[in-house]
Design a protein that fits this description.
389 residues, six-stranded mixed sheet, alpha/beta, single chain, eight-stranded mixed sheet
Length: 389
């Protein structure tokens, strides 16, 4: 695999939310085929990926989902976005709670019901990230039980491990779908000061270890390597210098795209000038009970990879022939029970959901929220085309 050292992201990336050029790139002609392959009919492989931010469970969310029989129901929470999540070939989200068993608790140390995991899977998430600052909230029991539950329900995951041997055999995470090979890397800045107990492993932002992981990833002959860091400063709408420094380092060392989370608010999306490399600094919360400004929603990132095979024996062409052929983002916001006179649970809503879906109070709140989100977009994304659910 390549890479030449890239200029700093601040120089080489467009200023915030530069998706217009990504859509333009999708319409460009592919480079001409070499003379020795003209006679072979090109074969295309496409893979669509959807990335989502932080899947939270605060105390009021747990209470709102509680049913009379003692179970927890989150169907209403994901109903309006389920179709969009399922539309992607692979949907990836940050599972920022532990499944440590009862008693269930919200902030500051999250222990969510098992039904929440089932709801995330049912909503369409295919891969879950577990390396985040809350992964040790219920200590070793929570880390191991979260992994056990994900394994028992058959949902792939990465970021935390019961021991080093499991990490060595399953990480970097290789995703093979639609004729493409995608490697995912996930790591966190910390664990809120909670100590890690042997033999458990949490992927941390350690450039020595990450460099080794990238080298191992490259030996897997991937078409794309995507890093998914848990980083940044909470509630800040612009990336920190440390985020920019790490993203630049990752790109220089072989990572193609960087999709981040943790700040709980939407931060810019940036596309390289050649439309080949994408950085999403923070996608915000998917669902939460946070009340700080701009924590009421965020965006999904959707990208499509394209690879063309032209060799007669079916061997995939080199890594350089894989293109980011299309990408986009869609906005959403979260309606809380108080917004709908406690008729409904927490509901993730597309930013332009029809008024007929909403109660009167939700409509009033939605207009204010949408105006705020639009201002954010206008500030960071003039002329950019978003897509709707």
């Amino acid at each position: 695999m390549r890479k030449n050292h890239l200029p700093t992201i601040l120089q080489s990336f467009l200023l915030a939310f530069a998706f217009g050029s990504c859509y333009a790139a999708a319409n460009r002609q592919m480079p001409p085929e070499s003379e020795d392959s003209i006679a072979v009919q090109p074969r295309e492989h496409r893979l669509s990926l959807l990335f989502a931010g932080d899947l939270m469970q605060h105390g009021p969310q747990i209470k709102a989902a509680l049913q009379k029989d003692g179970s927890y129901n989150y169907d209403e929470c994901f109903a309006q976005v389920k179709q969009e999540i399922e539309r992607a070939d692979v949907a990836i989200g940050n599972f920022e709670v532990t499944l440590g068993g009862k008693p269930y608790t919200g902030y500051p140390q999250f222990r969510a019901p098992d039904d929440y995991l089932r709801a995330c899977i049912d909503a369409g998430f295919d891969v879950l990230l577990t390396a985040n600052n809350h992964c040790l909230d219920s200590r070793r029991q929570g880390l191991e039980r979260t992994i056990m539950m994900m394994d028992s329900l058959g949902v792939p995951h990465l970021g935390t491990y019961v021991n080093e041997a499991v990490r060595d055999s399953t990480y970097p995470f290789l995703l093979e779908r639609n004729g493409l090979r995608v490697v995912l890397l996930n790591f966190t800045y910390g664990t809120n000061g909670l100590p890690l107990e042997h033999p458990n492993v949490v992927n941390l932002i350690d450039t020595v270890q990450i460099r080794s992981d990238i080298a191992k990833a490259q030996q897997m002959h991937p078409d794309v390597i995507i890093a998914l860091p848990h980083w940044g400063i909470e509630y800040q709408q612009l990336p920190s210098p440390q985020q920019r420094e790490l993203a630049d380092w990752l790109m220089a060392n072989g990572v193609d795209h960087v999709i981040g989370g943790h700040p709980h608010v939407a931060q810019p999306l940036e596309l390289s000038a050649d439309s080949l490399h994408l950085v999403a600094w923070s996608m915000g919360n998917v669902v939460s009970n946070q009340s700080k400004p701009n924590t009421y929603g965020g965006y999904f990132v959707r990208l499509e990879l394209l690879k063309r095979d032209t060799l007669e024996n079916g061997t995939p062409r080199p890594h350089a022939q894989t293109r980011l052929s299309d990408c986009g983002y869609c906005l959403y916001w979260v309606s809380r029970p108080a917004d709908n006179n406690f008729r409904h649970n927490y509901r993730i809503m597309p930013i332009d959901v029809a008024d007929s879906v909403l109660t009167g109070m939700e409509q009033k709140n939605r207009y204010a929220i949408r105006a705020s989100m639009r201002r954010l977009m206008e500030r960071h994304a003039k002329g950019v085309r978003e897509y709707s659910f």
